[in-house]
Amino acid sequence: MTESEFLKQAEATLDQIEATLEDLANTSDLDVECTRSGNVLEIEFIDNGSKIIVNSQAPMQELWVAAKSGGFHFKGNGTQWVNTRDGAELFAALSEMVSKQGGIAVTLHDKH
After folding, report:
1. Could you tell me if residue 14 is inside a domain?
2. How many Å apart are CA 16 and CA 9, to the nearest integer?
3. What is the per-residue pLDDT across 60-74, written as a single tens digit (0 to 9) for each?
4. For residue 1, what pLDDT band results from cuts at 50, 70 and 90?
5. If we measure between CA atoms, which residue out of 10, 29, 33 comes closest to residue 80?
6. Which residue, among 9, 52, 15, 67, has the nearest Cα to 36 in the 3D structure?
7. 30 φ/ψ angles, rounded to the nearest 5 degrees
8. Angstrom distances, CA of residue 6 to CA of 32, 56, 70, 81, 86
9. What CA–CA distance (Å, rounded) separates 32 from 74?
10. What domain count does the chain have?
11. Residues spanned by the domain of 53
12. CATH of the domain at 21
């Protein structure tokens, strides 16, 4: 994958995560605020002040996630982002992280 292809795919993924969480904030009890600065998406949980940070790393062609549960690297395999350590899919892993930090069950889906 070229760098421009990676950046396009990463941008679309960050956009999707942000839009989905903003929709959930408006339609459920999940109280989050998303802030985007370039390739960094910051998800703040209003109730407890904790955060999840998702950012793209072009040199490594990975998406990195920092959460209370740890730091994780996800590499694209052509159809999805996969954790480089345990093979977990990004949206499934984020669903678990957001549910734990937000205090309500949340399921995020890859719409691509």
Report:
1. yes
2. 11
3. 999 999 999 999 999
4. confident
5. 10
6. 15
7. -70, 120
8. 27, 9, 24, 11, 22
9. 23
10. 1
11. 3-102
12. 3.30.920.10
